[in-house]
Design a protein that fits this description.
By secondary structure, this protein is mainly alpha-helical. It folds into two domains: 303 residues, no CATH class; 37 residues, no CATH class. It contains 13 helices and six strands. The strands form three sheets. It has a two-stranded antiparallel ribbon. A two-stranded antiparallel ribbon has the order 3-4. Strands 5-6 form a two-stranded antiparallel ribbon. Helix 5 runs antiparallel to helix 8 and helix 8 packs antiparallel against helix 9.
Amino acid sequence: MNMLLINPVAIAIGTFEVRWYGIILGLGALAGLLLAVREGKRYGLSSDFFMDLLLIGVPSAIIGARIYYVAFKWDEYKHDLLSVFKIWEGGIAIYGALIGAFIAGILYIRAKGYSFWRVADICAPSLITGQIIGRWGNFVNQEAYGGPVSEDFLRNTLHLPGWIVDQMNVQGTFHHPTFLYESLWNLLGLILLLILRRQKFLRAGELLMSYFIWYSVGRFYIEGLRTDSLAFHGPEWLASFVNGLWSPMTVTFEPGYLDPAYGNIRISQLVAILLVLAAVAIIIVRRATGAASERYLDPIINRKTGLPADAGPEETKAENGGEEHGAERTEAAPNERETTKGHEDETND
């Protein structure tokens, strides 16, 4: 049977190449931006605010993702340092991307005078949207797949279309489309986040934490199917604990192969566990201490001006003692006093 594989290069002009991987990641970022802009308008945050956040966050995410990946694959890169920069060939880690994006986001959002929790909540659905789309870049590159499976499993059990099945044939062996599993899991997560953010009980920061919990649970179980996981050598009790949490999956799936010489604990699985625990703890502690007094549906206040984000420029200028409104108030003050006095006289009469 002839297999129709997707060319990872979308456009080639001489030696210049544009790869589908980059295009797909760009589309994911654009979709996330549009989603954040639409929700941000409800709170008076401008599209420019989110555009600037994207322009700062995306490069930071890419750098963080690459550093994270290369750090755990250093033996493969230390003799060819130029290959560290060949990100178009794949090799980034989502947790590294989140670290990079969040560092840049915290600095930018605070510099603008807003609460990080409030803006991060708005961006949570955007993050998972980017991941829904971005995983298809792995599909085109034939990477981040799971262990071997039969063609029959893909075609007749999962009922996948032929163009996906064909692409899952890597060097003559069919593999689990873990990119698809994660993309669909994240799609369900997006629906959940969109429902949650309209609930009155939701406090500031809790939509972001819900994203971390949902994504991490799915990533933990899907990661166990993969054959290219970043790993390290850890204590046997920890490896047994992680494997025990994953064991319900063995009813249907075989775990992806992990070379014992490389490691016995998948890093993404361990990080996923820690993120779930941390997210739950943050929700509990913030509620218990009163730090989560703001609700998601409350107006967003700029801490520099003390005004809601949806305050217009004229209102902001007046509140800050701007020249135009300051003059108007000064000139109007005598008339206001005279009017007030007249009313008082009439009342006394």
